[in-house]
Amino acid sequence: MRCATMIAFTLCLLAAGTARAEEPIKIGAIFSVTGPASFLGEPEKNTALMLVDKLNAAGGLLGKKVQLVLYDDETDVNKCVLAADKLLKKDKVVAVIGPTVSGNTLAIMNKFSQAQIPLVSCAAAEKIVTPVNPWVFKTPQSDRQAVERILAHAKAKGYKKIAIITVSDGYGQAGRAVLQELLPAQGFTLVADEVYGPKDTDMTAQLTKIKGLAPDAIICWGTNPGPAVIAKNRVQLGLSTPLYQSHGVASKKFIELAGESAEGLMLPAGRLIVADQISDGSPEKKLLKGYIADYEAAYKIPISSFGGYAYDALMLVAEAVTKGKSAKPEDIRDNLEKITGYMGVTGTFNFSPTDHNGLDTSSFEMLVIDKGDWKILP
Questions:
Q1: Residue 377 in 3-state DSSP?
Q2: pTM (2 decimals)?
Q3: What CATH number should be reported for the domain holding residue 178?
Q4: Which of 72, 142, 247, 330 might form a disulfide with 126, Cβ 3.0–4.6 angstroms?
Q5: Final residue belonging to a domain, choices 236, 269, 302
Q6: Based on the domain organization, do 160 and 208 belong to the same domain?
Q7: Is-cis flag, bond preceding 99, omega within 30?
Q8: For residues 305-318, average pLDDT
């Protein structure tokens, strides 16, 4: 009887050990799948789910399946806070990717320091990583890099007087602060500084003021739908002043919303949306074309730069787990910070203790919208 009990006990221990070994690596995700930023969050969600399936089909990470615990914050900051609390306190994830928008990221990032769980944001604001928070990283290029790329183009064109129009949310105001800093620092004159609300449906008043000041160029900083409204209002007012947009509109949704008014507008963007136009010898091209083929086959919709931010966020976490041979949160954080020369969809990442974005202006191309599509400017 005693022998039988010992055998049963041993089997129970073996079963418990096997169950622990088979526990998945749980990675959290918060995306704006619905709400005003759904055109950003939906491709992020789609990409993350597709990549988890691919990782698991290839054996997972460290021999374990990857489980994505995903919440839709509906582009609402309060729902984003609740989602973060669930991931950190209830779901016990080892890392989180997202959120989609800058304001939501800024609202939750300190929770990750307190919980000592790494966060890899898919939002662009420079304030997410400056000053460096040891537990927070991000994958989109910073607004500073985008502004520098725009101003380099404007300087080459001989433009001197610049007007800006920015949205009054986290992303827009982060961009506004960098524009206010860099325009005078680089020898430009800021002749107009207009702001609009995220829900505003007409910016004629702001553009009329700008028109009266006769700038050489206008820079708009925001995400849809506002920039598309501004593009239409510009045409309606007969305003021919060159208009730059930020990388916050680098998806076909902007062209769809702006229609013919998008023609000739310029913006910095990653190479994903112009993968066909980059050199066949570019080492990025194979990665970009592979992601595009997989995504469009799976979802029957065009690729988006924003899905690329989620691609990089998840794969950087996977790289940190693989290279460090550990899925402990503190090890993932440490090994994220050691990643250099990592080719992602958005660019080549070089993280360090003082740089948790790891990208520079070389990750951008300057694009123009020509005949309803993106074209690399010479």
A1: coil
A2: 0.88
A3: 3.40.50.2300
A4: 142
A5: 269
A6: yes
A7: yes
A8: 97
